[in-house]
Amino acid sequence: MTSESSKGISRRGLFGAAGAAVATGVAGYVVHSAVSGEESQAADNTGPVEFHGPHQAGIVTPAQDRLHFATFDVTATKREAVIALLKEWTAAAALMTAGRDIGQYGAVNGPGEAPPEDTGEAVGLPPARLTITIGFGPSFFVDAQGNDRFGIKAKRPAALVDLPHFIGDDLDPNRSGGDIAVQACSDDPQVAVHAIRNLARIGFGTVAVRYSQLGFGRTSSTSRAQSTPRNLFGFKDGTANLKLEDTDKLEQQLWVQPEDGPDWMVGGSYLVSRRIRMTIEIWDRTSLGEQEQIIGRGKGTGAPLGKADEFDAVDFNAKTSDGSLKVPADSHVRLAHPQFNKGAELLRRGYNFVDGSDGLGRLDAGLFFLAYQRDPRKQFVPIQQQLARADKLNEYIRHVGSGIFACPGGVTPGSYWGEKLFT
Amino acid sequence: MTSESSKGISRRGLFGAAGAAVATGVAGYVVHSAVSGEESQAADNTGPVEFHGPHQAGIVTPAQDRLHFATFDVTATKREAVIALLKEWTAAAALMTAGRDIGQYGAVNGPGEAPPEDTGEAVGLPPARLTITIGFGPSFFVDAQGNDRFGIKAKRPAALVDLPHFIGDDLDPNRSGGDIAVQACSDDPQVAVHAIRNLARIGFGTVAVRYSQLGFGRTSSTSRAQSTPRNLFGFKDGTANLKLEDTDKLEQQLWVQPEDGPDWMVGGSYLVSRRIRMTIEIWDRTSLGEQEQIIGRGKGTGAPLGKADEFDAVDFNAKTSDGSLKVPADSHVRLAHPQFNKGAELLRRGYNFVDGSDGLGRLDAGLFFLAYQRDPRKQFVPIQQQLARADKLNEYIRHVGSGIFACPGGVTPGSYWGEKLFT
């Protein structure tokens, strides 16, 4: 354990150094059974994921089942206050991901006259594969007036672009942007909520929550050991996602390389978040045949149209007996495929959400899309431009929130999130 | 399996009649370990809970970990449309709780030209102890103008009162009321969401969603086999809750008895729902000592103040060396205790919620309180009047949504939800 971790009080008394998982983040996780009728294989999903390493955890870590994502705006004006917060957050994140209470006094053992240093709702719960991942938005480097807020304007990466307007965008500013993003993922929602809530508590006076989003079912696999889950359209999603086993491809598509720069981003990745509202009531009245033509896959099997198995390669030239393409030219699977995007891919780890109803008798439901990549200018932006222009799925979805964040490389013991950005 | 169930397509092909749990609903469930440091005991939480029985499932069923609650307003004007919907809903609920697709064609096997009869996002997922529980609100019997909407005005139970205004109530009408409430609980949130979403889909043209609420962590135990979870104040909650093992007490406090009437409610129970916003940012800056004085229990142990163990009886007469009460007169545990409420108790099965942020940099978080009882006039109403008047906890909470519903007795095979109300 690091020096930060050893300060914390174990939530259950059994998470010592021996409990730490390897740096690649391949801890146990739950694998939902496929439609074929296999029994579900529940592996251990209670253990910790190592916080330190060459990359931040929570990117290639096999996608956990629950999300609490929040962005924060910095309300402090001093560079020193931001640095102090990042140090305190890093120490707290190391403790929480190890399944420990924050701080010297913990949730319940402090002196009675002071507030507890941990809010306590995770007492008794295991680490539950908690990962906490940080990213910095464009507004962290320069404010709307172009001012160098914290002396880091010159360090803004060229790849951290302001996202362009995409056709059909219907963005709510209150669900978009943010100076700092924090993604907390866990197999236990209470553990993920506890993480964001305590970071918000620690940040009081320095940052304020801009928006917060819970997600309840992962919509992508990030490891070949995971089965492909279903999104709220009822389709398997993310079959062709980048996965942690694709080590060569991850260097090409996911991790910022030394030649890309800036230095502080090497080993990091760019996150694009999109809150995508699904008009599921309309989708649910669409025929099965049309649903499959729009997606380009079978609903039951997840296989590309014309194929039998989910993982069969898509044949974009195959034609039906009447001469039309089996996988339509405006289908989602085709427009999003690397073959039609100059080879660009994304590592997606989005979540389903249902946030009550919308006042019109419909569920406020959809996909909270999260995608990591080496360079959004070559990956998310052109892919989304093509999808926004031509994807038939656009009749059933609406992008209502958006964010882009530079997520630095991993944290080594003794350093803090973004240290290289400030030194 | 019932005739309804046998129509459905198994989501995994392995949930036959042998898979059905007993009527009391004591299927497997996850038990979180207590703070003492025991390892978590994960029992099987994937199986089905029997839908039919003398009482509706989802009341004394050991509380599942996830909630999707929704209320619906009836938009149809004909009694026959309501009866037809209740029949269709009952059949769908029997199938979904058994882990089956709805309808003859299921999610993915239908003829391509028709919409699937199931939305499909639960394909491949187990039943996950899904329960679906229905209740009818005052407005189902009589509209705001006093009209007998569906010919059932005379059958409105006297106990189904319009809740009075409680001191401090700050209710949002868009999160209150509703003609029909449906509570879906499961250990898998996607399964709970699938249930509400498909009932909404089936109800299109007859009902519209009024509001919907997801909850992510049970805040009460309803069985002695479950450990007591923690709420977002970090405290164990519901230690003294009514539990399914308290069979005699359940007849006195939970289930409507033949002498209570009306006939159609015998074996049923009344549900009060309250969306209780917690101002956790303020709570988190309160000292541990004050937190414990407000609740009346230790934060770590959950034990009543002055005692060592969570399940020790509260001693309301114990005094400290300076002569003040160990458990303060305005503490939550005292004001809510049966001893100070003419013996009245509730079966609580509420859930934590975090619904993003509130636009002021704070999490929109709290407790979605759900309590079942034999007669709200003798139970929830007087208890809440006392709490609203004197509970010190009121400085940190705000009731922002409210509902009351008459939940009929259990469904027998071949009948439908509320059949006795319409015959």
UniProtKB/TrEMBL annotation, chains A, B:
PROSITE patterns in the record: DYP_PEROXIDASE, TAT
GO cellular component, one term: cell envelope
Lipoprotein found in the keyword field: no
Keywords: Heme, Iron, Lyase, Metal-binding, Oxidoreductase, Peroxidase, Signal
UniProt-recorded Gene Ontology molecular function terms: ferrochelatase activity; heme binding; metal ion binding; peroxidase activity
Major location (coarse): other
Domain Dyp-type peroxidase N-terminal: 56-216
Catalysed transformations (reactions): heme b + 2 H(+) = protoporphyrin IX + Fe(2+)
Compartment annotation: Cell envelope
GO biological process, one term: iron import into cell
Family: Belongs to the DyP-type peroxidase family.
Annotated function: Involved in the recovery of exogenous heme iron. Extracts iron from heme while preserving the protoporphyrin ring intact.
Name of protein: Deferrochelatase
Organism: Kribbella voronezhensis
Upper lineage: Bacteria, Bacillati, Actinomycetota, Actinomycetes, Propionibacteriales
